[in-house]
Design brief:
homodimer; about 450 residues; alpha+beta; BirA Bifunctional Protein, domain 2; Rossmann fold; 2 domains; 8-stranded mixed beta sheet; 16 strands; elongated
Chain lengths: ~450, ~450
Amino acid sequence: MNEKNTISPELGSGFKDYLPEDMIPRQKMFDTIRSTFERFGFVPLDTPGIEREEILTGGDPNFKMQIFRTGLRIGDEGLALRFDLTVPLARVVSLYGDRISRPFKRYQTGKVWRGEKAQAGRFREFVQFDADIVGSERMSADAEIIALMYETMSSLGLSRFSIRINNRKLLNGLTDYVGYDQSLNADVLRTIDKLDKIAWEGVSAELKERSSFNDDQLSKLKKFLDLRSSSSLELLTELSGLMASSPVAQRGIAELTEIANNLKSLNVPDTSWRIDLSVARGLGYYTGPVFETILDDLPSIGSVFSGGRYDDLVARFGDRSVAATGASVGVDRLFAAMEKLGLIKKVMATAKVVVLNFDSTAEDYCQKIVTAIRQSGLQAELYLGKETNLKAQLAYALGQNIPVVVIAGGSEKDRGVVQIKDIQRRKQVETTFDNVSAVIKSILQNAEAVV
Amino acid sequence: MNEKNTISPELGSGFKDYLPEDMIPRQKMFDTIRSTFERFGFVPLDTPGIEREEILTGGDPNFKMQIFRTGLRIGDEGLALRFDLTVPLARVVSLYGDRISRPFKRYQTGKVWRGEKAQAGRFREFVQFDADIVGSERMSADAEIIALMYETMSSLGLSRFSIRINNRKLLNGLTDYVGYDQSLNADVLRTIDKLDKIAWEGVSAELKERSSFNDDQLSKLKKFLDLRSSSSLELLTELSGLMASSPVAQRGIAELTEIANNLKSLNVPDTSWRIDLSVARGLGYYTGPVFETILDDLPSIGSVFSGGRYDDLVARFGDRSVAATGASVGVDRLFAAMEKLGLIKKVMATAKVVVLNFDSTAEDYCQKIVTAIRQSGLQAELYLGKETNLKAQLAYALGQNIPVVVIAGGSEKDRGVVQIKDIQRRKQVETTFDNVSAVIKSILQNAEAVV
């Protein structure tokens, strides 16, 4: 190491560190998501961050998403970083066949990577937390996913959110209803997807220019997008009249009607979800219902929990089609939003107790004390920093917001006692070595009662 | 998707999927490690999987470890996948200065990647789980790491393991004691590190050939490596006599003596650790005590929990040296070992209850039942697969080892009751809708009592 030529510790752009004050509440968030997913009976899966390239692209030479290639090759095949957890799930379903249960209700969390241009709020690496049901064609499976989305958001302490639901079959039915060629549909949907950003003016201009829509087509489309009603079921009834000419749209409407009825039985309140005909979802693999979740107070950050049905994805690996539906929490985006909304409480320490360590003749005694406290099940830290005086060590404990401080120097060691400081109540008691954990537990119980 | 040209779902070699039956116990292992680390007051950190290349290599053109490059460049700089969690920690310490507490006791878990030749038991991607103390020169910090290693292994249900401890300063003192040039030391240590694999015959032959050792030098080295004693403290006393000519070795001996005394106060039994003078640890950044953990019944798989002191690593980023020590669990290797030792219990399901769903006229009722069970805090699954008859759905529940099955068809719906099957006791009871959760909880409590 050349001291004159040191290395900058900066991260590449689009990447992010999570320091403990953020990581402690972030981990609490992971724990809440996981326990909610398990309450619905989902089971965990883990797959590598690196996959064979053609698994990710589906062998499609026009594959649009920017993936990170790793430089490593096996034979003439490249390896690349996964961009989501859904494609690896489809691979697993195909590869392990009988070793996994059907229906396969799996959850998975992990980092994914996208080689996008780095910009505000866009990360090149982020964590997803997915739940999917593979092997069920029932609309009650889609309803189950939506109920899971509702329960997860609620468990995280969020109440002001809307789950927006649509169906790709309605969007595919637009070709019949509006009257344009199937081949234009991908482009048309991509334009509609911008409605939130560029409004109807922008969307209609783009459709005129790119897809040669005439005024009649535009007015039909606008009628579709403007459809509103006092209830979802009424909306679906109106839609059924509007799109009577499209068989595929009628199937989509029947599916959404079934989901709406299921959501009642699953106790998902009407106020937390609605049919939104402008929801398209970018990924190409969706085939049926699609979902996204918008925070009422931060709509601009986009969806924080999204998904849909993708019945054809597993077929990529040679199996016949396998029905599948699911959704994914964008953990980093949701965490950033909750931070903005003041819902994240920064926490500095995991320790509930710090044992000071200021008298080198008593370090062995302090080690015995901290060991006893830990063995009683409490999180306890022995001070190991470079400060040697009591006051500076105490300042460290206060800075970390640790509620209990244990003090033991030579005189305490000789008498077999310790001093215990209750920071919140500004009280200090002396107790015997054997009583340390019991006294601390009673202080912590009182502290919880106060908070 | 072209059906005639489907894509193989195989993984690249050196990569591994964890199906739920393995992932459920593996996650339990993560939870145990995390709660032990938190019991010692460590706080969580997260950093990206991708780092700037020179951060990983330290700008060393001779850097030997195979890293995965990502293909993405920022300016003329490459980005690559991290090969451990220690280098990113050093970067974080340098980058955030005041925003992190000192001492900084952090833990971190995540995937790391090494572009090694894939071979049995060697993964190209694996999970590490690290705990480090940054900003403490005290040997009690090293002792704390060793105590953490002991407690973690014990909490995982392991008892037959040995933590082997050495000190790089002893190995550096070999130049004085054996009498050879400092510049040869890296090569000599690399050869000594092979002692487990190629025995003394191999080591001595290699030292003769590569480092031109003569018989006198070889016999001195052998004396060092053969040193045994009935206790660690006695061994250190003998070593002190043997290496009297080396000031650096004397410092290493004093450090190990202090650690040995600390381990007594920290209640780490003598039987679970020992001084082992052949432990070198491969990574170049270690500067003081080094640790590794060998399973008594599976020594051949190598160390499952290793680390040491690395006081100079942070200086790579321009700071003056920052004292640091820590250790890392090789989670995948440890999990594989525990599986071999029969310590991993495969678990198929997270759900404790499955609500069958065989009568389409009662699906709404079943949805209400499963929602009520979940709201009572229990993990419950609604059957969503393609089987439509009760018997086949029951077979699914039995296959998953789910202890409670709820049955409700049209007649139960009409009467507002449900049938509850206690699988273990082969009993079935009928109860009202409102009582479902209470009845299930009592069945599960009895089941636990029986197990």
